[in-house]
């Protein structure tokens, strides 16, 4: 039986493997020699993939930088902005499984190139509402809009107003409702982001596995670290672009900028958010061009030609399992030859479920997946609303916030990711060491995040919202407290938001609610006089003046903002060090023919269970801390104008820390499982093969039996063959 088995094996290798694999590989290799000589191999692919990662990271980070701009432009709450942000992940969800499972058998570079074109189309679509909506309208009292007529904000004498209060209100509603349909244009932003998600889908699973297939094994971690580092450079430019566009008025080129009466410090300010999307779309088109000229296959390194598995993967795939899979492979091929069927049977969709069963039967994979899902919930929610948090907590403008994040915070992340890849290569860290490094970075990162609770600013003094008109702490029913004895004779609306800063350092919701009787100047230089409510905190008998715009935060706030930046940079670096080791842990514990599929399922789970819900429930939680909502022209709640700083800090940082802590427990479980499955060096080097690295003999037997269907569908280079 042993001799006949060897003869059958010899017959099979001579008659089947040579014609199908080697000859086809030779012809394929010779046909693509010209292309490979032009493209320069794996390093050219590495450069092209890095540029694509840069392009997709730039457009994605630019979206994060325009969150508050989109919220104000379309007058929508944070929870709805979270849905828009999550639509990118929904786009990934639609095709991620198909691209990951079947894309590995097609021309991977060209699929990535096609994805870039789709991604650019979605980016252009996001910017389109700007060209179909009406001009941006913000709330301003008539006397501040370059008017030569002095109108009293406190309309005690109705004859002072060109229209009666009722007529003015009705005219405002009618004028606003003509353009109210423009507020639904946010749907195009959602659809564009959805299209971006579809185009981005093939980049990660196909690009990373292409590198892992054709790079020297010891260089894989460094290459992946380089790609992820370049990907982090994208957000640097994305946030800097967001900073530049936030300085420009939204309707720049369409209106006279001298007529704009608000400044970037105003919460109603909207920058030229649409301009950056046009730039990002052009970059995405350029990034996809090289992939149309890259070959389907690259020559494998000499060290990996004789084996389809890496040295570390072989530790998690037992020797007897390999022999059995070879036997199954040979028997199946003989059976298919006898039936005259094509080898394409092996790539049948029927193999999808067994492959899925194998992945979820791998305890390391499933535990690491759970840890990643929860950690990404924490990180995605934190990154999405970080600009809003800095603006509201420390009183910074959108432009400065994006500049700080792009120039200080993001480089720390890039350096951390690169450091992780460098450590893996320099110290030749194995899978167990990668798990330890990933766990340690998460633990110390979230520990540092705890200190940010002590670095928040107190609420600004806003009369009727955070303090009463008499200087005491505010009551629960804040809307009723907007009215006081000092403004009881004024015809004011509680829905307006046109803040002014009194000389007593208190912000008032509007000049009318401050009881101002007169004004001087126009536009940004308007000064209000005889404001009956401004003097009540110190001297009720004396009326005082006020200027346009809210008052600045307290004197301690700039110093706390500096401390926040320092801790935030250190935290970002610490958390990022574990990024590359985590990728290596994921790749090395999965069989080579399932790498693309495993990365696809991993990405799918992150998109569905973290990328989509995290921005939404973070947004809902942040909305609960709003003290003053804006009002739409035709009625209904608009965007939030003022947040409770203390509540915002506890909700934002608290959610981030709770989720991060839970993910650490799963990371500890991953480390425990890896310790049990790993063996001492003397067992690895033993020749009798009685013990393997995956556990006991019974575990090995179960492992082999459960993978029967998967092993029969494997052959070398399955991922890169049609």
UniProtKB/TrEMBL annotation:
Molecular function GO terms recorded: bile acid transmembrane transporter activity; sodium-independent organic anion transmembrane transporter activity
One protein family per Pfam: Kazal_2
Residues annotated as transmembrane: 40-59, 80-104, 110-132, 221-250, 270-294, 365-383, 403-423, 435-455, 561-587, 599-622, 651-674
GO annotation terms (biological process): monoatomic ion transport; sodium-independent organic anion transport
UniProt entry tagged with the keyword Transport: yes
Compartment(s) where it occurs, according to its Swiss-Prot or TrEMBL record: Cell membrane
Keywords per UniProt: Cell membrane, Disulfide bond, Glycoprotein, Ion transport, Lipid transport, Membrane, Transmembrane, Transmembrane helix, Transport
UniProt domain Major facilitator superfamily (MFS) profile: residue ranges: 45-678
InterPro entries: Kazal_dom (IPR002350), Kazal_dom_sf (IPR036058), MFS_dom (IPR020846), MFS_trans_sf (IPR036259), OATP (IPR004156)
Major localisation: membrane
Family statement: Belongs to the organo anion transporter (TC 2.A.60) family.
Protein name: Solute carrier organic anion transporter family member
Species, as recorded: Chordeiles acutipennis
